[in-house]
Amino acid sequence: MFTGIIAALGQVTRYEPRPGGGARLTIAAAGLQPAPRPGDSIAVNGCCLTVERAGAGRLLFSLAPETVERTALKRLQPGERVSLEPALRAGDPLGGHWVQGHIEAVGTLLSFKRLAPSSRLDGTAQRAGEGDYWLSIRLPAEILPFVVWKGSLAVEGISLTVARLEGRRAGFAIIPYTCKHTHLATLEPGAPLNLEADILARYLARWLEARGAPKPRRAKRPG
Questions:
Q1: CATH number 2.40.30.20 given to 105-210
Q2: Domain regions of the chain by residue span
Q3: Could you say which of 113, 124, 170, 171 is the most buried, measured as most Cβ atoms within 10 Å of its Cβ?
Q4: How many Cβ atoms from other residues are within 10 Å of residue 109's Cβ?
Q5: Would the CATH topology of 8-86 be identical to that of 105-210?
Q6: Please, what's the largest Cα pairwise distance for the chain?
């Protein structure tokens, strides 16, 4: 279980496709504390992976064919930055929302733009580089029923609040801290994005379906 609050940035050092459709992924992750051990669960861009080997600040993961096929991890190249989060421990603060690390769909990055500078609440001007950002993504049809305005959505493992929802386009306000401490700013338009909807929405939909309610078909705009 995770929270969608990124703990550290890593860097891909190797991505090696394997026979049968799987892959092996090596990440330099010296900034992740406490140091992961073999068997630990780490969310890499939102995908829960098991550490196979750890040492000298590097983590090795084996990706099953299912993982390669159904996530955006296949896009990774050496040198690319990734967002990392260790599994939630008992007593840790729940700063984001419940995230399982089970990627449900892959969206598409439409844009990631800096917003026009604005004044702080105390009336002083922001310095260059301090402005907020706006993330716009295209959602696949299968996840639409579980995405709501002002609800939570894990995008690349990052807990974000849906600030705008228009058809299959979702928008998110990104603060400078999130921009600095995640890999979002390194992505280019068209990049595939790992998505995970709120697990409570999934369970509620399944419960309603079991009780004979019609299966949700699409998300609706607020209002």
A1: yes
A2: 8-86, 105-210
A3: 170
A4: 20
A5: yes
A6: 59
Region of residue 57 (phi > 0: left; psi between -120 and 50: alpha; otherwise: beta): left
pLDDT confidence of residue 95:
85
Q: What is the CA radius of gyration of the chain?
A: 18
Q: For the range 182-187, what are the long-range contacts, defined as Cβ-Cβ under 8 Å and sequence gap of 24 or more?
A: 182/6, 182/9, 182/83, 182/156, 182/158, 183/9, 183/45, 183/80, 183/81, 183/82, 183/83, 183/156, 184/112, 184/133, 184/135, 184/156, 184/158, 185/112, 185/133, 186/80, 186/81, 187/109, 187/112
pLDDT at 96: 86
Q: Which CATH architecture has domain 8-86?
A: Beta Barrel (2.40)
pLDDT of residue 121: 47
pTM of structure: 0.87
CA angle 140, 171, 153 (to 5 degrees): 60
Question: Residue 95 in contact with residue 21, Cβ under 8 Å?
Answer: no
